[in-house]
Amino acid sequence: MMNESVKRFWLIAVLILTGIAGNTQKVYFVDGFHGGIYGHYPAGYTAFINEMLAKHPEWVISLEIEPETWDSVRLNEPANYATFRDYLADQSDQGRVEYVNPSYGQAYLYNIHGESIIRQFSYGIRKMKSHFPGLVYSSYSSEEPCFTSALPQILSSFGFKYASLKNPNTCWGGYTRAHGGELLNWVGPDGTKLLTVPRYASEALDPNSTWQTTASTNSKAFISSALDAGIKNPVGMCLQDAGWKFGPWLKKNTGPDKSTYITWRNYIGNVAGRQKLADWKFSQEDVQVSLVWGAQVLQQIARQVRVSENKIVRSEKLASMASVLQGSSYPAAAFDEAWRGLMLAQHHDCWIVPYNGKRNNTWIDKVQRWTDTANRLVDSSSALAWSVLNGQTGNGVVIAEQSDAGARWFVRVYNSNAGKYTGITTVDLPNALNGKNLSLISSTGKVVPHQLDGNRVSFMADVPGTGISTYSIREQISATENTSMVSRTISGGVKLETDLYQLVFDPAKGGALVSLVAKKMNNKQFIQPSATAGMNSMSGYFFRDSSILSTAAQIATITTVSDGPLLASIRIDGFIGKHPFSQLVTVTKSGDLIDVDLNINWVGNPGIGDSYKQSGGYKAEDYRKAFYDDSKKLQTLFPLALEGQKIHKNAPFDVTESRLATTFFQTWDSIKNNIILNWVDVTDAKGQYGFALFTDHTTNYSHDGGSTLGLTTQYSGVGLWGRNYSITGPTRLHYAFFPHKGGWEQAAVWQKNSYWNNPPEAALVNGSNVPAAQQLVSLDNDRLEITAIEMQGDDLIVRLFNPSTKPSAANIRLPVKSAKTISAVELDGRVKSRFKTVQSASGTSVNLQIKPFGIQTIRISGIKKLST
Fold this sequence. Notes:
Helix 2 (about 45-55) crosses helix 4 (about 80-90), helix 9 packs antiparallel against helix 10 (about 330-345) and helix 10 (about 330-345) runs antiparallel to helix 12. A hairpin with a 2-residue loop joins strand 29 (about 565-575) and strand 30 (about 580-590). The chain starts with a helix and ends with a strand. The chain is of the alpha+beta class and about 850 residues long. It has five domains: about 25-150 and about 150-280, 7-stranded beta/alpha barrel (Alpha-Beta Barrel); about 300-395, Substrate Binding Domain Of Dnak, Chain:A, Domain 2; about 400-480 and about 760-770, Immunoglobulin-like (Sandwich); about 485-745, Beta-galactosidase, Chain A, domain 5 (Distorted Sandwich), CATH 2.70.98.30; about 775-868, Immunoglobulin-like. It contains 13 helices and 56 strands.
């Protein structure tokens, strides 16, 4: 009996201990809501959230709600607003509500400029502070693939400590690359590390959908595969669409497999294992995303966003110059509203569901209104700044006054970039000067070479970084060079000859560029000899015609638009099938860029791209989608004579070396990041020669793994959710390209693209005395980029970026007598360090160091002007 009792005791003990051990294995789930007043947030929804929180005391949530939403909730549901504020009051690790994405317009981030990302967070956090001043931002997470490689640096500077790279329930637009580990260090391009939960290597894409992964419901398969992969504390996630009425997302959350609801702050801070954390040097190609690239609607939205991005930043710099140099009032409210419109136009829904919404109020319509408003406010602010800088010559910092008794008209040229600009500038002349003999005189009295084309004058300008130069126009005969840059070849081609290049266009091949010789690179020919259609031709599959059509298949006409000593333009008019197109190709005497304005006047609405399911049968669950296949879209082609090609491309605050063998794919589970934000650069294997391509909007590029680079020019067909992305008018694209020696960094591709995006602005002034030159910020390192200059109250903010794989030193001089403090600050305003200043007759300067791909924000407080 005694032995049997002992046996029974130990058997029960083992069973109890086994049960306890089984229960110690916990799994976790991050639940919450995503949306907002622009995306989706129905009236009364805050009451529902409050009700669910009260009903389910074990439930905790993470929020990704557009900040403006709370303006509406406070106004229309004050009691619910107050209750929700109480839930948000506890910002400890055990708090029940964490705000994981305060960005103003919930942008995808990878498709906009780095400065726009900073403003998305700064304006969003400012708006949130007006409602919930005690909020703490610990973790970044998004239900959409709102990720970009440089986020660790940006988020850390705003005070974030953690991030998640999961978006398990909304993968329509893509997902991040799977990576092993429960927790890792996400390493940004500048070296900043951020504790991050990745999409596990075991977190598979759902075999029965094209929008979710196995982590979206904490399925048994997800948990089992995670445990097998060594994930000791598996965590899934779903930020539900605001408007859904499920309450807690996991419906069968009972029994031994029950998941514990948790916030990212609590999970990463207190649960996730931190032993032997791996460093993941996250590449932009690890953001595996795709939209309906090449569709007219996306081209339109992307171009409108790009125009506003560039205009706002240029105008802020000009207004800051007027404020610091001339004491004018800085139009902060106007810029705030302009940024608001732009940030909303960057909303991810604008890009992925552009047609959604009621008539005249789709996302397309909203983007048009938002960017129009932004541009109008910016244009008004710039006009005011120009008037101040042009008219007040005695009350500010003026290096010299330009007084020319023989001149009544002046051209003032503004350069918003960090480095000195030397190149061609064009301005329209007033009617009073049409048809007259003119000379342009610099502030030093030098006659400047110029070229007249009708009522437009082009001349060689020399403008300091973030500065203005002045040129007087005199009615007098000047010696002009009658050099021609355009000629005809014996075979009937058209030749453009500059100091740098010899280009030949062949009318018989649709105006294709058949020879591109770089004269100062040992006369290297950059076009692949086997390319029968030449370069800059277009080709694509027209599925309703069951034909591949090419511009090279029909004869084009080539006419000379401008042919002078400084600038030349030719116009190519041809056809692709029955559809007429024109290309305006412009070169300058000594400039690097070959600039192209493309216009295609479509006849009807042709179908262009892969024919898959174009006539019906679209299913959301089908992995294959026609719009994924770039190989059949209309592409502008650049076959390059570069052996063993390597590709680099820019991203927000980053440059990525591509690891893609080819950019082509057809299915959702094989998405590749082949996005071109601003530029893509191709070099040979040795890095001896390269070729850069610029575009005026975010789109994608193609590369066949061999010799041919392509710019996606048109898609017309079925897109997401079976919507027809149709052609509704002409297609207009602006792009540029140039061959170079060395890699992207040696060739200053980033800097040249900045000048192309932000060319000098010229303004005519009618008067007697105007400032000869003005400059706000002087840098002795022209490889740095000044991403922003703005006034915040009485303080001047200057933000620098180092687009380089190497650290950069610089001396920055400001035209001020002194400043109380000049500090390096974080993006949330925290002071990192104070600079030692050096005063001189020309202003106040500091020395600084910026790490590779580093951002440096400088705050100048207590400014005293040189004139005081």
